[in-house]
Every structure is written in structure tokens, then in C-alpha cells.
Amino acid sequence: MSYVEFSHVGKNYKMGELSIRALSDVSFSVEKGEVCVIVGASGAGKTTILNILGGMDTLTEGKVFLDGSEISAYNKKQLTTYRRYEIGFVFQFYNLVQNLTALENVELASQICKDSMDAAEVLGLVGLADRTANFPAQLSGGEQQRAAIARALAKRPKLLLCDEPTGALDYQTGKQVLSILQDAARKTGMTVIIITHNRALTAMADRVVEVSSGQIRSEYRNETVVPVEQIVW
Hints:
Blueprint: E1 4-15, E2 18-30, E3 35-39, H1 46-53, E4 61-66, E5 69-70, H2 76-85, E6 87-90, H3 102-112, H4 119-125, H5 141-154, E7 159-163, H6 171-188, E8 191-196, E9 207-212, E10 215-221
């Protein structure tokens, strides 16, 4: 079995009397240590996939596995533990605590995890060693996103889930952030899944999953992975 496994996953949302089909027969797999880019237009189902994998949403049918455990069978308490210890999240809009410094934001990970990385050390890894005492309002957008990545990495998660992580950033800053994510997978063996509407980002991925109208259009292993610095979009 692969490290991440989606098997015939379907998801329906109830809206009053209506039932909306968000995912239909979604199957794909990701190996440990891979960078996987899930690409598709807005409304294609990417975020629903990410939310199910992150334990923030439940499926209607099918099964989902991470590292051999069927997370789709977890109850609410098990899902809370799963989100706390096994998953790192990076969102488009940072979600930093505004009245805490960059260092204190990353230290939040140590308060919920058993084996977190040193906060100052991980901020150094993302290029913020000299910004540890700054509050989010004193950081640029790219620096805030790097602090958010540091907070996620500090948990030593099995899986790092990134929802449009460059969506609020300019071109050059976005490339810096993507380079950090690619390096995290290469240096730590962490599995990284990035969802995006930007097809150019597929060049940096070990594995690409294309989603359209709630279905997998294609899934393939990328044999010619490109360093982020060489990607143009």
C-alpha cells in the first residue's frame, strides 16, 4: 500500500433539499517523501480532497489511508489526535496569531506536540533567524508565509498539506516559499501535498494529480522534476 491512498472516495454535501456531489470515485496514491501537486480549476474538488485527507471533513463513501491507517474510519476524537500530531497545514492566508511574535507562533507547535522541533532552529531553516522577535504585522507577506510553514514543520508531521500556499504572494516570493516546501521534502523525507490552480507548479512535483468536476482526470509520476528556481509562470 502507498503512504497516502485514496480509494473510490465520494463526497456529497447537503444543502437543504439538495445533495451536491463534490467528489466522485476519486482514487490516487502518493508515496512517502514525495511532493504531490493536486491541480485543477476553482471548484474542481481540490480543497475537498485536502480537507478529507487533513481530517477536517468526512467522506460519503470510499476509504482513505495514511501510513497504513484508515483515517476515514476515525471517530471525532481520533480525528482530533490525527490533526494535532500527524498533519501540518499551510494555508493561503497564513493564519498567524497577531499578538504573538514569529518565535511564539512557531512555539505553539511545541504546546500541542510530543516531539516538536526547536522553534528558533526551524525559523532559521526558513530564513527567518533575524525575524524571530517580530510580530506578523511587522513581516512581509512572504515572511508571514514562511513563519506559517515553520510552525507546520515544527510539528514534525507525517504529512504537510498546503492549500494554495503562494496565492497571496508575488512571483518571486512565491518561488521562495515553494523552494522551502520542496527542500523540506528532500531533506526530511516529509510527504508534501500542494493544491493549486497554477499548472506551472506541476513541474516541481514528483507526482501530479489533475482534478476536474470532482473526478481525477489524470495521475502520473513526474520523471523530470524541475527545481523551483527554474519554473516560469
